[in-house]
Amino acid sequence: MKSVLQITLGILLAGLVTLLVRIGYLSYVEYRLTQGLNEFAMQQKQTELARQQAAKDRQLAEYQIQQELQQNAAEKSRLAKQNEAARIRKAEAWRKYYLVPEDCKNFKSDEHMVNCINHKADAKVEFDRAYNTGTLVLTK
Question: Which residues form a coiled coil (predicted)?
Fold first, then answer.
């Protein structure tokens, strides 16, 4: 009977050892799976944060481009207004500078018309030179 009891205890002990080894192995597998899931979750979180940062960077870049476009448009508009004002000032100065000679108000012949047009062209060249160098003196 003693040997039957020893055999039974041996079988129970082997079963208990097997159970403990199985529990240990399952605990290890559970630990590794949990660790893998945590790593995957961290990677997902980092990927999402990187995506959000990229979206913010893209929005910032688009905003900066929009601001630059608006500044360029404002500068272009300012320059256009400035150029138009300069053109008007120059046209007004030309109007004050050039007085049509009395004999050129009514053309007497084609040759007379050509002489008057040449006179005006010469005056315009002189006016442009004086206006551009800043030496223009208006009498009015």
Answer: 42-85
